[in-house]
Design brief:
217 residues, mainly beta, 2 domains, 18-stranded parallel β-sheet, 2 helices
Length: 217
């Protein structure tokens, strides 16, 4: 999916439609209880009471609700997830709400994430909200981030708001608001190895790397 472009929303909409066209669809009004395991992409507009394990993509529509853990290659959520999430890429769209724990390589938030987060790169868009304990290599905040934060680089954009206990190696503030205590970097979790991969850098990662080259303020 192409990110950070002027026509991003149109591109995202087209990409999600393409995924839906080739997916197993659980329609609105349908409730499934039990564990789902498979290789196909799954699109959920109904209710799932149980865990999901797939080798492909999980798309959760605005009416979709998952009460259980999800493990997949990529997760795109516009609905509700009440459970632990483990994936390579996680996109939390508006008006999605994701709770409990997230373990991923890349996390992009336009909706709301409440819980623990372990990842390589976290991008919080202007309308995005994250509250909990976050451990990452790099965090870009254009929205709101509240809680305990541990990272190598914390970058706050002009529209960003950060509040909490921050254990960081480097801070870059481009006009955002930062409140709380700042201390020497330390890990909040001991099992972040699961978030490490050897995949080539994405546009999100390139943006994170680009931020490290900017002078500190």
């Amino acid at each position: 999916m192409a990110l950070f472009k002027s026509n991003r929303e149109k591109t995202e909409s087209a990409s999600i439609k393409e995924v839906i066209n080739t997916a197993t669809i659980i329609t609105k009004g349908t409730t499934i209880t039990g564990k789902i395991v498979g290789n196909d992409t799954i699109h959920i507009d109904g209710d799932i009471e149980g865990s999901i394990e797939v080798d492909n993509i999980v798309v959760i529509g605005k009416s979709g609700i998952v009460n259980g853990d999800i493990e997949a290659q990529k997760i795109i959520s516009s609905g509700i997830i009440n459970g632990n999430v483990k994936c390579d890429e996680l996109e939390i769209m508006e008006p999605s709400i994701v709770k409990k724990r997230v373990n991923a390589r890349k996390v992009q938030v336009r909706g709301k994430l409440e819980g623990d987060v372990v990842c390589d790169g976290l991008l919080i868009e202007p309308k995005g909200f994250v509250e909990g304990r976050v451990q990452a290599k790099s965090i870009i905040v254009a929205g709101s981030l509240i809680g305990d934060i541990a990272c190598d680089l914390l970058s706050t954009k002009q529209t960003g708001y950060v509040k909490g206990s921050m254990y960081v190696s480097n801070i870059s503030n481009e006009g955002g608001k930062v409140e709380g205590s700042i201390g020497q970097y330390k890990e909040l979790f001991s099992d972040d190895e699961d978030s490490k991969t050897t995949n080539p850098p994405s546009e999100l990662e390139e943006m994170l790397q680009e931020s490290t080259t900017k002078p500190k303020k």
